[in-house]
Amino acid sequence: MVLPIIIGLGVTMVALSVKSGLNAWTVYKTLSPLTIAKLNNIRIENPTAGYRDALKFKSSLIDEELKNRLNQYQGGFAPRMTEPEALLILDISAREINHLDEKLLKKKHRKAMVRNHPDRGGSPYMAAKINEAKEVLERSVLLRKR
C-alpha cells in the first residue's frame, strides 16, 4: 500500500527535475560563453574580435531593458552602495523610478528576498546587499513619501 505512493513521489520528483533542467538548458544555450563569463564576473583579458559581439545577449527570453542594463553593468559591488546600484539590485526599472514609493519599494524588496533568501538556498551576502539596497533607497530623494 505504501509502495505505490513512494513510486509516485519518485516519478514526480524525476519529472520536475527534468522539467527544470530543460528550462535552464533553454536559457543557457542562448547565451554565449563570454556572456556567461560576464554574468559571473569573470574577466577575460583579450576576447577575440569574433566574440566581441557575443558580450551582448542574444536571447529573446530576456526583455530589451534588462539586456541593456546588464550589458552596461560592470559587475561587483561598490564599497559603499549607490542609488543606481540599489535600483539594479532591486530590479527597479527606469519607468518605475518616477513612481517609486514605499509600497513599490517594499514589493521589490520582498520579491528579491524571496528569490535570494538564505533559508531557500540563497546567499547570506546577497540577502545583506538586498537589505542594504532597500535602506539606501529609503533614505534616497528618489523615494516619494506619502
Can you describe what's shown?
This protein has 146 residues and is mainly α. Helix content is 58%, strand content 0%. The chain is extended and about 65 Å long. It starts with a helix and ends in an 8-residue tail after the last helix. Residues 49-61 have low confidence and may be disordered.
Offer a few descriptive terms:
7 helices, 146 residues, single chain, mainly alpha
Poorly predicted runs: 49-61
Beta-strand segment tally: 0
Helix content: 55-70%
CATH-defined fold name of the domain at 77-146 = Helix Hairpins
Largest beta-sheet characterization: none
What would a concise description of this structure say?
This protein has helices at 2-28, 33-39, 64-72, 83-89, 94-97, 102-116, 124-138.
Helix/strand layout:
Layout: H1 2-28, H2 33-39, H3 64-72, H4 83-89, H5 94-97, H6 102-116, H7 124-138
